[in-house]
Amino acid sequence: MKNKTVLMLMCILGSVAISYIHMQGHLWSALYAQSAPTFQLPKGSKVVLGKYNNKEIVWDIGNNTNDYVLMSSIPIVRDIQKYDSSIGCTKYNHPVMTGRYYYDCPNTVLDMKINNINLTVYELSLLSRNFFVPNYSEIKTGGTLGLTTNDRAYKDIPYYLNEHGERLGIISNGWGNNMRTLTQSIATALGSSDVVTSNNISVAPNDSIGLVYDYHYDGNVYIGKSNLRPFGIMKSSNINFAANTSYTDGAWHNYVIDTANLNKNNELNPNKLRVQSSLTASLQDIKNESKTKSISKVIKNGSVNLYVNANTGTNNKISVILYNEAGTEILHYRMLENTRGGTNHYIVDLNNIAVGKYQVAVINEEYDASSQLAVESSPISNLMPLEIVEPHKLTYTKTPQSGASAGNDYEFSKN
Question: What pLDDT is recorded for position 135?
Fold first, then answer.
């Protein structure tokens, strides 16, 4: 009887020990998990959103203080004229030069082009303000869009503003119709010191503002032209993540967002947006290759199993994000495999990731190889620590005094 009691107690204690070990793994996971920082796109990054003439549009982020101020990275239309007699441009006689007439043309031609930007209902929900031609009060230094001249001015071409103005010299001669159209000049150009807007706001010379106008003289219509660059405002709270459009090939990528091409009139290195949706992802645990033990360290070029709880959507994948040790900077990104519903393990090889301390997160994101437009995703998951270490290396020198006989190697069972 006594032996049976002892045996029963041993079984109970063993079960408790096993349960304790099992709980310790989950407690370790819970203890060391932390929330990912809020993702934010830097000023100067480029993103893809919407189509014009069936071509995906790339936008510069000119300000990211609150929501993102978007400016098309190249004009959607180059050298476009506002003059169009069919839309009711107002004709004025020149006060001095006989036979010359100015035309005050509304923005209808430009607005019609901008209205041809195609957005899905899903994309439209990202915008807190739909695409528009800005006025001077919005884009000037200290204006409502929070831009500086270098933030907004192309380095080599001008573009239209939704603003009329005139030179003071002409107004002082009695010409008060103020109907020339203001433009944003190139970044290196200084605007005229005698330009005022139609509501008598003086334009600062260092704001690089120019003028374009249409007029009729000697039977000929001289048509001024500039470039059409739409602006827009995108909700920052709706953006979960973004990465270079080349990063969806399944390989590890050193995560970088290029900000060097702000307003350089190009579409280099745009980013694909991952947008708030009903998708979810939670990192539950990190285990060794055999899936038997929760770990926080792995040897260089080794593999780990990430245990992720996620839901499924339309063609979505689990991707892994490596932060620095503090969890404040994204260092690496890799798209993994198709998402499986519920809690599942995903094998991640860490080939060519440098030795060091990291924080690991995952994201559940839609995958569309045919387009660089925004896709749906979960928020970035919680973070868990993982250190990559060098493999252990044991060396020795054979000497008789160390236990090996001269000329022979060590024997595991004897030494």
Answer: 96
